[in-house]
Automatic annotation (TrEMBL), chain A:
Organism, scientific name: Suillus placidus
CDD domains: proteasome_beta_type_1
Its biological purpose: Component of the proteasome, a multicatalytic proteinase complex which is characterized by its ability to cleave peptides with Arg, Phe, Tyr, Leu, and Glu adjacent to the leaving group at neutral or slightly basic pH. The proteasome has an ATP-dependent proteolytic activity.
GO annotation, biological process: proteolysis involved in protein catabolic process
Family: Belongs to the peptidase T1B family.
Upper taxonomic lineage: Eukaryota, Fungi, Dikarya, Basidiomycota, Agaricomycotina
Name of this chain's protein: Proteasome subunit beta
Subcellular localization(s) per the UniProt record: Cytoplasm; Nucleus
GO cellular component: cytoplasm; nucleus; proteasome core complex, beta-subunit complex
Main location: cytoplasm
Automatic annotation (TrEMBL), chain B:
GO CC terms of this entry: cytoplasm; nucleus; proteasome core complex, alpha-subunit complex
Keyword RNA-binding: no
Subunit details: The 26S proteasome consists of a 20S proteasome core and two 19S regulatory subunits.
Pfam families according to UniProt: Proteasome (PF00227), Proteasome_A_N (PF10584)
Segments forming domain Proteasome alpha-type subunits: 31-53
Described purpose of this protein according to its UniProt entry: The proteasome is a multicatalytic proteinase complex which is characterized by its ability to cleave peptides with Arg, Phe, Tyr, Leu, and Glu adjacent to the leaving group at neutral or slightly basic pH. The proteasome has an ATP-dependent proteolytic activity.
InterPro entries the record matches: Ntn_hydrolases_N, Proteasome_alpha, Proteasome_alpha-type, Proteasome_asu_N, Proteasome_sua/b
Protein name: Proteasome subunit alpha type
Keyword annotations of the record: Cytoplasm, Nucleus, Proteasome
TrEMBL record, chain C:
Keywords: Cytoplasm, Nucleus, Proteasome
Keyword Nucleus attributed: yes
PANTHER family cross-referenced by the UniProt entry: METALLOPROTEASE TLDD (PTHR32194), PROTEASOME SUBUNIT BETA (PTHR32194:SF6)
Major subcellular site: cytoplasm
Known function: Non-catalytic component of the proteasome.
Descriptive protein name: Proteasome subunit beta
InterPro entries according to UniProt: Ntn_hydrolases_N, Proteasome_beta4, Proteasome_bsu_CS, Proteasome_sua/b, Proteasome_suB-type
GO BP term, example: proteolysis involved in protein catabolic process
Species whose genome carries this gene: Suillus placidus
The organism's taxonomic lineage, starting at the top: Eukaryota, Fungi, Dikarya, Basidiomycota, Agaricomycotina
Database matches in PROSITE patterns: PROTEASOME_BETA_1, PROTEASOME_BETA_2
Length: 255, 270, 266
């Protein structure tokens, strides 16, 4: 419910049902050489009201695919439900999980099918490709998509994306003499960038906060390499295919 | 030569058959092929055949007592492979109404669907639960329609509708002919004659629901023919003060008690 | 950048749409006209409305409160309306917003319950199922641009678990240990959170009742569409119970001392 402002009461207005709202929050994904990290905060809000401190925006699709949805929460939940249903049907038909690039294409088709009554959601799909590389796909509400190394979306996109451009793509950074920027960062670095992005966004954006969920997809054959020490890491892997999926949760400020 | 001989033989056989059958049920006269045709003596054989389907079925009874209704069915188990409790012959129509049927189970499913739709429609239109009488009328109207046309077959079931509504406990039977009558005690299926005799001995309007459960179980066990039939399951539900006016299965412990008493009574009866 | 996709590609003159860029539901229409189209009405605004519903989780289950007023604009039109409704044996649904839509919802859920009973399959609908059903219904109706104009709280207790969740006319859902609809979301929710968050497993039934009563009193003081006559529903392992209507002690003597507004004292 939006608090009515004074001037809307002053003069008559045409009232029409608006089927959309905006539920705040921010999502983010970064691809590594052989891993992918997908994260989102757990606050759901409308206007100045916090509706709940825990409403997940990041969902496990398969052992190698994670989908983050941000925008109008009702559309987001319905969209994820339908994507999961399509993936289940695929599994029944082909006795395997759908590959990441195929899920990406499926999502574009499903979004574009609603071109003239769009799902008002920004999707970021992260995971492991068939060639074992970490991948991030980002979408606009009507299905335009591309594969990227990193992407932030949602309420604090304008705060987080420039930071990622600087830290992941090394924009506006000069490499030291005789060295070059690394093309891929290690998981440890990526995780601290993700956590820093969200703590910073929580400080500066009222719609971001409460909780943080970080999904980590690991490529086949990749060892944990220090991940054992991560506090509260929970494994979500179901299949024996080799790829592994983890989730870690952190508190964010609740104010 | 050969064909000539055959014709003569078949003529002879046919004559004999026709003779036997007409003396029995008028089969072969042609008047039994369609529900849209009367026989010269004013009967509709398709309806009577439908009653045969009912008579082949395990007994179903209903008791309308002081403060509720009890329904009980002798569900014959034709295979040991069936899951116990499956293929129920007592169905729920609405919160406060149940139906027990004898005859073709598939037909009774159609009737229950019809009955539920009728309940839903009444609620939608009047915001009121339908009465057992109104329900039985609706169903019987439908059943009667199926006795008019050559393109359809009458329902092969007799249905007992029991429930509690604003007029108190009610009990009705709808037959394949479309006849609908109210009863204090109802019995359909194989053992109905004996069951009716037993029901007549009871002072139904003075019984409590718990007493009725005992009597119903006793009657079902009594009418069951051990020699002819194999296993049976006793299915029993009730509606009334004991169940808060909801149509519910009789509680398991009470059902067991009733079964035990019924078996004991059987020993002394014989 | 404009992040609202319905605004993209829209010509500045709303009467002209050369490139068919409007979403279907608001596209200008130039085809043959159905004379009776105006006769088909959809809810574009609520008419007779209920105000806030409050609910909290406590030690033994869920407690919910709503007053008995249905307003017609600013007129207190119906003063004995029950806005808490029991569904099945484990669930209570509380409604704010349009009361005719709420009555329709009650009818739909009654049908659903009877279908479920008739199935005789040993399954019973609990609060989780009722909430999922309602969110699918509300979302489907908003997607047809013909919403059921309500904010609903669905609370229940089944299989040893308490459940409390929200759904509204847009199909938006969320759950938390304290929930409030309408004006309650602004006025009561902060009070409820302060009293409940982190103490869900400690609060007794008596304490829960007091928390809700205190919040209802504040709402009565501040929400002009509220009334000092309300009901409380408790849902626990003991089942559902919805109280008779009750009133709260209020004090208005301070009003005599108020002179003017804010800094104005005369």
């Amino acid at each position: 419910m939006i608090m009515p402002d004074m001037d809307s009461l002053a003069h008559p207005q045409e009232r029409r049902f608006n089927p959309y709202t905006e539920n705040g929050g921010t999502i983010l994904a970064i691809a590594g050489a052989d891993f992918s990290v997908i994260a989102g905060d757990t606050r759901q809000s409308e206007g100045y009201s916090i509706q709940t401190r825990y409403a997940p925006k990041v969902f496990r699709l398969t052992d190698r695919a994670v989908l983050a949805v941000n925008g109008f929460a009702a559309d987001g939940n319905m969209f994820v439900k339908k994507v999961k249903q399509r993936l289940e049907w695929y599994h029944h038909a082909h006795a395997k999980d759908m590959p990441l690039r195929a899920i990406a294409r499926l999502i574009q088709t499903m979004l574009y099918a609603r071109r003239f009554f769009p799902y008002y959601v920004y999707n970021i799909l992260g995971g492991i490709e068939e060639d074992g590389t970490g991948a991030v796909y980002s979408f606009d509400p009507v299905g335009s998509y591309e594969r990227e190394a990193c992407r932030a979306a949602g309420a604090a996109q304008s705060l987080v994306q420039p930071f990622l451009d600087n830290q992941i793509y090394f924009k506006n950074q000069e490499a030291a003499q005789g060295t070059s920027h690394p093309s891929h960062l290690p998981l440890e670095t990526v995780l601290s960038i993700v956590i820093d992005s969200f703590t910073s966004a929580t400080e500066r954006h009222i719609e971001v906060g409460d909780g943080l969920e970080i999904f980590i997809a690991l490529s086949k054959g990749r060892t944990l390499q220090g991940m054992e020490s991560i506090r509260g890491l929970q494994e979500l892997t179901v299949t024996e295919d080799g790829e592994r999926l983890f989730v870690m949760r952190r508190d964010l400020k609740k104010d | 030569m050969i064909s000539h001989g055959l014709t003569r033989l078949s003529l002879r056989v046919r004559g004999k058959l026709t003779c036997i059958l007409t003396t029995m049920t008028s089969i072969g006269t042609g008047y039994d092929l369609s529900a849209s045709t009367y026989s010269p003596d004013g009967r509709i054989f398709q309806v009577e055949y439908a009653n045969k389907a009912v008579e082949n079925s395990g007994t179903a009874i209903g008791l309308r007592v002081k403060d509720g209704v009890v329904l009980a069915v002798e569900k014959l188990i034709h295979s040991k492979l069936l899951v116990p409790g499956a293929n129920r012959r007592i169905q729920t129509v609405d919160r406060h109404i149940g139906m027990a049927s004898a005859g073709l189970l598939a037909d009774s499913r159609k009737i229950s669907q019809l009955a539920r739709d009728s309940g839903a429609q009444t609620r939608k239109q009047w915001k009121e639960p339908l009465t057992v009488k109104a329900l039985s009328d609706t169903v019987s109207w439908n059943a009667q329609t199926y006795t008019l046309y050559s393109s359809v077959r009458p329902f092969g079931v007799s249905t007992i509708f029991g429930g509690v509504d604003k007029s108190g406990p009610s009990l009705y039977i709808v037959e394949p002919s479309g006849v609908c009558l109210g009863y204090h005690g109802a019995a359909v299926g194989k053992g109905r004659q004996l069951a009716k005799t037993e029901l007549e001995k009871l002072k139904l309007s003075e019984l409590s629901m718990r007493e009725a459960v005992m009597e119903a179980a006793r009657i079902i066990y009594l009418v069951h023919d051990d020699n002819k039939e194999k296993e049976f399951e006793l299915e029993m539900t009730w509606v009334g003060v004991e169940s808060n006016d909801l149509h519910l299965p009789v509680p398991a412990d009470l059902l067991e008690e009733a079964k035990k008493k019924a078996k004991d009574a059987l020993e002394t009866f014989e | 950048m404009d992040h609202f996709p319905t605004n993209w590609g829209r010509p500045r003159n709303d009467a002209f749409d050369a490139y068919a860029t409007y979403p279907i539901h608001q596209r200008p229409y130039n085809g043959p006209k159905d004379t009776f189209a105006d006769g088909v009405q959809r809810t574009q605004q609520p008419i007779v409305t209920g105000t806030s519903v409050l609910a909290i989780k406590y030690k033994d289950g869920v407690m919910m409160a709503a007053d008995n007023l249905a307003s017609y604009g600013s007129l207190a039109r119906f003063k004995d309306v029950q806005r808490l409704h029991q569904v099945g044996n484990y669930t209570v649904i509380g409604a704010g917003g349009d009361m005719s839509d709420f009555q329709y919802i009650q009818y739909i859920l009654e049908e659903l319950s009877i279908d479920e009973i008739s199935a005789q399959d040993g399954h019973e609908l609990g609060p989780i199922e009722i909430h999922e059903y309602m969110s699918q219904l509300m979302y489907a109706r908003r997607s047809k641009m013909n919403p059921l104009w309500n904010s609903l709280l669905i609370g229940g207790f089944k299989d040893g678990k308490r459940f409390l969740s929200y759904v509204d006319l847009l199909g938006t859902t969320y759950s938390a240990s304290t929930l409030a609809t309408g004006y309650g979301a602004f006025i009561a929710q902060p009070l409820l959170r302060k009293a409940v968050e982190g103490r869900e497993d400690v609060i007794t039934e008596e304490e829960a009742r007091k928390i809700l009563e205190d919040s209802m009193r504040v709402l009565f003081y501040r929400d002009a569409r509220s009334m000092n006559k309300f009901q409380i529903a408790t849902i626990s392992s003991a089942g559902v119970s919805i109280s008779d209507s009750m009133q709260l002690e209020t004090a208005w003597s301070f009003a005599e001392n108020i002179r003017g507004y804010g800094a104005q004292t005369q």
